[in-house]
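During data preparation, a discrete fold description was generated, as reproduced here:
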Amino acid sequence: MAYKSLMTVLTAAEAIEPTLSAAVDLARREDAHLEVLCLGVDRTQAGYYYAGAAIVLQQEMIDRADAEARALDAKVQERLGREDIRWSSEAAVAQLGALNGLVAIRARFNDLVILPKPFGAGRGQEEEAIVEAALFDGQTPVLVLPDTGVGAKLGGRIVVAWNQSSEALAAVRRAMPLLRKAEMVDIAVIDPPKHGPERSDPGGPLSQMLVRHGVRAEVSVLAKTLPKISDILLRHANDINADMIVMGAYGHSRFREAILGGATRGMLELATVPVFMAH
């Protein structure tokens, strides 16, 4: 498998340069097409306004979101017009509650979605909804970028978060093109269960599978010395100078179609390196 169709979703001009720089580099490296969706978000909640006012306000907000999307698309086209890759850009408008369907239908026909980190200063609800839509509804792996952007070499040294789950294995399989090109892949196993199927060789079966694919893999067994799994993984990535983390994405149904689970949310809130996730 190779990444031949890449996608990114932008909602703010501030995200253009860091997100597109990483996406363009990956598209060039993979000889892939890059699709950009410039999204204007209508955040109107009509139920909170008296009869009649809601319609007027909603149309005004839709017009404003459309203008924002078109302005964003113009900036993206100007930025990508200087590049030597295949690309396309389109403006679209969606209400906050309807983001899932729009993003998911686009994401499912791409091999990888590249997105800015959804949590932090200046981020809105739509950023989290876009990540969730691509991962859970679109069933497409997502590469989430930290605020600092991407280093000189994306995916040179990769940490794989391994807990024997189907989500973790799905992430490994979907990340295989990146893993095969990495200089080193570290399989991080945190507090492996004493009575689990890999009790005598934590991470061993996965390491064997990766080696057969030509991946230069090794295993690190880590103690749970911090309360959050995300803290341990990020510290380990920093210790070995890794520039990417691969992990499964966990979620569950509740008020929205998909809500990011604790470990997934923690990683996306704190990530200082790109995080590759799949569900």
Q: What stands out?
A: The radius of gyration is 20 Å. Residues 157-278 form a domain with the Rossmann fold fold (CATH 3.40.50.620).
